[in-house]
Amino acid sequence: MRYKTQGTCSQEIEVELKDGVIDSVAFIGGCNGNLKGISALVKGMKPQDAIERLKGIRCGMKPTSCPDQLAHALESML
Length: 78
Prior knowledge:
This protein is an alpha+beta fold and 78 residues long. 40% of the residues lie in helices and 27% in strands. Strands 1-2-3 form a 3-stranded antiparallel beta sheet.
């Protein structure tokens, strides 16, 4: 699934679930190293667990962040 982000440096997130767990996450744009790290950390997690950990994280003064947008993407998939 492709999710268009809002309010972040990344423009889009590609998420794949397999057998009820996160199989892969790829951010388009944004801070490459950090976003690869987030993608690696959530791989193999249940979407609900990732949402719980990531939702509400802010980037500086922005009301959202790339991890928060990933939580929104996962919510839209469930």
